[in-house]
Amino acid sequence: MSAPSTPLAEQLQAEQAAILRRNLPFSLCGALLTVGLVWAAMREAVPAWQMLAWFLAQAAWTLVRAWGVSRYRRGAGDAGGVARWRRTAIATTGVAGLLWGIPFAYWMLHVDLPHQMFLIVALLTLGTGAIYAYCIDLPLLYAFQVPYFSLPFIAILTIPGTMHTVLALAAALYLAVTLVFAQRMSRTQIDSLRLRFENLSLVESLQREKEAAERSDLAKSRFLAAASHDLRQPVHALSLFIGVLKEQPLPDESRRLVDSVGRAASALGTLFEALLNISRLDAGVVRVNRRTFALTALFDQLLLEFTPQADAKSLVLRVRPTRAVVYTDPALLDRILRNLVDNAIRNTQRGGVLLACRPRRGAWRIEVWDTGAGIPAAEQDKVFWEFHQLNNPERDRGKGLGLGLAIVRRTAKLLGHAVGLRSRPGRGSVFAITVPRMAEQHAGQPEAPPPGHSAGALKGRLVFVVDDDIENRQGLQLLLEAWGCRVVAGGSGEEIVQAAARRNERPDLIISDYRLRNHETGIEVIDALHEEFNDENIPAMLISGDTDPQRLAEAAARTWPLMHKPVEPAELREVLVRMLG
């Protein structure tokens, strides 16, 4: 019972047949050339009719073999067809071996010694060439070599005399050695083919795994984007209503309750902001604005902001003074260092955290040291994965969200800065980022924020609001009215355009949700209102709960401000004041 065929075995057989198919035309041409040489050398020693008969037989059989070669393509795509073609090739090659072996054996017995020597040389020449042409398929090689060599050598052995006996034994030894050599050549070629196919299979497997991982990552991103958008809607409405409540006169107890609800909503906003940062980095919409600046102001600000968080855990947060000047995006570097300092404080129970900077090979290496539990070597790459946290199976929000270090790695990659990590379990960790170094005399000062305008800039302004979610629309309308704005609201582009036609008054500002019903977008609504009033200079802004990288890229292509739900009322007010002030 034959062993079951495997895909690899079928591939090997098909490739062996293909190599044999490529070698056969050269082999046939070499055989015809040898026939011509034999004719020229033996025509005086062999009767003409014998030479002619042999020549015609060789030519006819060469045509038969050539026709068999041409039929290869018919069965090349099928394992059964390849097997049938191979069996035919073995049979025709065996007959070719007989067409050489029988005449040579007969002539060995009837020609003189010089012509016998020529026949032996011709045998060895063509036989050696056959090894290289046929060794990819040993049965085919044996089908040719055995009758080709054995019959003339037997004939030599029957001739009396020591010389012919030695020649026959030497020929037998030669045949044995060549067959062993051919077997090793065949094994080497087949092993090479097997290795090639196994490597191709491995590459294909890796490609499938890569594609599966990419599909999984895309599905995760889509899920996060959809879930984030759907969750942001009610949280955004909640944030707006909390903002409206804060504008009202309330008893102390009610105000404390509102503040508590506000902090809970703010915590949700922090999670959504982290998801948004990941999505924006994946979407490639984060613009890098590099400039030269001194680190000291950034370090002082981080010390000021994170000291209360460290004090709450009885930790010592220290910042080593530095005169370092770097060339990078200050906002993105600030985001990286904030995440690293926050991560260090969250994962340190006693001791302290140090933020320092030191020169390193023409650059500055900014390091955040902690005395936390440390990170095992096997986990040091995984801590940069999204939502991967050590020692937090209960998903305690107080220990972070598991997104900070993922944001650090993505942001550093965007900037082209190297991120490093050294850690010893039980001793603490050191996270570092290497930033290009610039001469201090070219240092720029951190840009100061533009001066704030009076909140009175909003009073009496006409604002068009478009949002398909009724709670969000009502919450934003109430908040804007509490700030003194006049509001026209609609749930779609058609509604707001109709309302604008009835109002017949140019708006001071358009605020639209990005994703509306029936696949309509805020970009389309704002464009429609600009066309309605024939004025593309009407200020506009988008508010979105979407974290889909493709949508973020579409929104980023416009110059309008883009805010992400849930929007903090104070932040929204500041943006509106800047736009209208």
Automatic annotation (TrEMBL):
Domain Histidine kinase span(s) in chain numbering: 226-439
Positions bearing 4-aspartylphosphate: D513
Annotated transmembrane regions: 24-42, 48-68, 89-109, 115-134
Highest taxon of the lineage: Bacteria
Xref: Pfam families: HATPase_c (PF02518), HisKA (PF00512), Response_reg (PF00072)
PROSITE patterns named in the record: HIS_KIN, RESPONSE_REGULATORY
EC identifiers of the protein: 2.7.13.3
Molecular function per GO: ATP binding
Residue stretches making up the Response regulatory domain: 462-580
Catalyzed chemical reaction(s): ATP + protein L-histidine = ADP + protein N-phospho-L-histidine
Gene3D superfamilies from the UniProt entry: 1.10.287.130, 3.40.50.2300, Histidine kinase-like ATPase, C-terminal domain
Keyword annotations of the record: ATP-binding, Kinase, Membrane, Nucleotide-binding, Phosphoprotein, Transferase, Transmembrane, Transmembrane helix
Protein name: histidine kinase
